[in-house]
Amino acid sequence: MNNFQFKNPTKILFGKGQIANINQELHPNQKILLLYGGGSIKKNGVYDQVMQALKGYNITEFSGIEANPRYETCLKAINLVKKESIEFILAVGGGSVIDAAKFIAAGVYIETDPWMILSDRAKVKQALPIGTVLTLPATASEMNGNAVITRDATKEKLAFGSPHVYPQFSVLDPETTLSLPARQIANGVVDAFSHVIEQYLTYPADAPLQDRMAEGILLTLIEEGPKTYADPKDYTSRANIMWACTMALNGVIGVGVPQDWATHRIGHELTALFEIDHARTLAIVMPGIFQHKSEQKKHKLLQYASRIWNITEGSEEEIIHQAVDKTIAFFESLGIKTKLKDYDVNPEAINEIAERLAKRNGEIGLGEHQDIHQQDVVKILEYAL
Amino acid sequence: MNNFQFKNPTKILFGKGQIANINQELHPNQKILLLYGGGSIKKNGVYDQVMQALKGYNITEFSGIEANPRYETCLKAINLVKKESIEFILAVGGGSVIDAAKFIAAGVYIETDPWMILSDRAKVKQALPIGTVLTLPATASEMNGNAVITRDATKEKLAFGSPHVYPQFSVLDPETTLSLPARQIANGVVDAFSHVIEQYLTYPADAPLQDRMAEGILLTLIEEGPKTYADPKDYTSRANIMWACTMALNGVIGVGVPQDWATHRIGHELTALFEIDHARTLAIVMPGIFQHKSEQKKHKLLQYASRIWNITEGSEEEIIHQAVDKTIAFFESLGIKTKLKDYDVNPEAINEIAERLAKRNGEIGLGEHQDIHQQDVVKILEYAL
To which protein family does this belong (chains A, B) (predicted)? Predict the structure, then answer.
């Protein structure tokens, strides 16, 4: 196991009816910004529950945060926060709204252009406190210090992380997710699956507990994912998916082990250029990573094949091949296509993506060995043709 | 899954050399109480490493905290803290020293007799901040808000918990454990094993991820425990045991599921009356709980038999019987005896123990169904004859 430092101070309020308890986490005198997206929370009753819990509180609203939240929109929110002397941001929605809240919370205090937090890793020294009411299980942004923001003008999608932007509290009420379209639930399951894979499927690091915990999340997603996809009204399976998505990226399974994240980095380019749902880009890229890196990742791929898919027969090569097929079949069973042509992406785009990444990273490659360079990205994406 | 609230703000600094970083977690102007036990930290170099890291800091020492820390000793430390206006307690040692630090930190502020925190669940509203340097993996006290204190005068061993006594930080350097006697390592493995069982082996609660994470810890303890017991110099297995012990009781696997804790409650009486090592009392009691409650716990016992011990052949009764045998054999393989006579406890003591527990609990029984009463305790302990 590698040395590590770990701290996750977010308080989780999990289960039916927990929105009613958010007033115990907030001071009545605080000026609160209520941040949300396109207004689905007004249709499914979540907005009403929040307002009921915060009756008499000082609330300013800002809506219109997009899926893949835009820098340009966040800038407007930062101006509003400054103008209204907001003291707390309550994000109600999915990972996009929560990511936006983090960027806004940090952007208020940054002395340079807030974009520098993303483009030049300008250090975040302070941020407004955040709370969240999660309505879409997927990103685990509700229990970590990371955010991804997209800039429309330059078609860039970049990430940042800071200990200052962990939510103080997050409400996870599975009932808020019962009205979600199947497409979004499928996206969430695949996003969380990919988060686990990025922290697990690298090389052995003598960390058997982290391995088993990662495998526990993968198995839960595989068992519960199809149940909740088939029957959105099944509270139990939705609760399990919600908690599995949070555990997939709250830091617990990633301590002391190497991490990959090449799938996400390549996927972000696909979203930025072609507006493909984040999770679907991961389903396109991940099988290619497994295949292009099958030698380096061999030990873990064999463990994954055996412990997750019960594949033990055949040569090592055949076992790995079957594991890739099983992974693709799992994504497809949730209605998530894995080929570029399914999303009308032209094969010529592959070179553009590889070039963009190479330009952004310079000499530093992607992946747990930092050895995925421009030509590797081309080969990885060619598996998705 | 049941509703739950979860928060664990402790920062973990894990790995070789991390003691040197504690000065980044402390203010040089704070008056620090350095709390430790019988002085083993002076022999194994941990004391020197701490003093080196805190050169120039304002430190007062208090040593002599016992295994099963005594109320009477803690009272002396509380007086010292008040007299010296101590602002931070740094506990260096195992669970006993850390538990004592928590009781002292809370006791300083309590308006009644501090014993009321334990005997009458007097509410802890405030506590001094705590940090820890863990030298003995076992209790997970380094990453939770619980403590157990023993009162010599009345031979009582009682627990309390409060969100105010989570350590702000804990250093887990596996190298500090390399000089531990095999007996203590064995105790730690069995203690952690029992912590997992108390949160896992109850009844199904539709929480498959918590189950798999609990199973991951059990499997890690079973695989790595004998390695580290056989070769104390194996850093890797010791690191894995250290992290598994922390994860066993930092709250993660216990969210949203029923919990038992009867093994611990009965075990505490054995320690209070006969000074048997805490972990050894658990090894005495646990098999009896499995057997006495085999009908109520049937579903989980079968899952435990299958997923932990690969037992699938035989009737349900036979499978459970084999799982009990495997559990006992595991404890015994670490040199931990599981019968009362191994510790020279007279069979007549069984009634005394059952009576003491009944007196303390009144009508409320032990276990996940609160249905383990005086006569059940007798039967459970009779399995250990």
Answer: Belongs to the iron-containing alcohol dehydrogenase family.
Every domain of chain A and the residues it spans: 11-176, 182-382
> Helix or strand or coil: residue B257?
coil
CB contact at 8 A, B148 and B66: no
User: DSSP string covering B66-77, please?
Assistant: PSS-BHHHHHHH
Query: Cβ B17–A3 below 8 Å, yes or no?
Result: yes
List residues of chain B with CB under 8 Å from any CB of chain A: 1-18, 206-209, 212-213, 215-217, 219-220, 223-224, 236, 239-240, 243-244, 247, 252, 255-256
Q: Is the dihedral of CA A111, A114, A120, A122 positive or negative?
A: positive
Architecture per CATH, B11-176: 3-Layer(aba) Sandwich (3.40)
| Cβ within 8 Å, pair B3-A17 | yes
Q: For residue range B19-72, what is the model confidence (pLDDT) as tens digits?
A: 999 999 999 999 999 999 998 999 999 999 999 999 999 999 999 999 999 999
Average per-residue pLDDT for chain B = 96
Around A287, how many Cα atoms within 13 Å sit in the side-chain half-sphere? 25
User: Rounded to a whole number, what is the distance in Å from the CA of A92 to chain B's nearest CA?
Assistant: 19
pLDDT in the model for residue B361: 83
Distance from the Cα of A247 to chain B's closest Cα (Å) equals: 9
A interface with B, Cβ–Cβ below 8 Å: 1-18, 206-209, 212-213, 215-217, 219-220, 223-224, 236, 239-240, 243-244, 247, 252, 255-256
Task: Report yes or no: B107 and B117 within 8 Å, Cβ to Cβ.
Answer: yes
- B33 to chain A, closest Cα gap in Å: 24
- B209 with A16: Cβ contact below 8 A: no
- CATH 3.40.50.720 applies to domain B182-382: no
Q: What is the ipTM of this complex?
A: 0.96
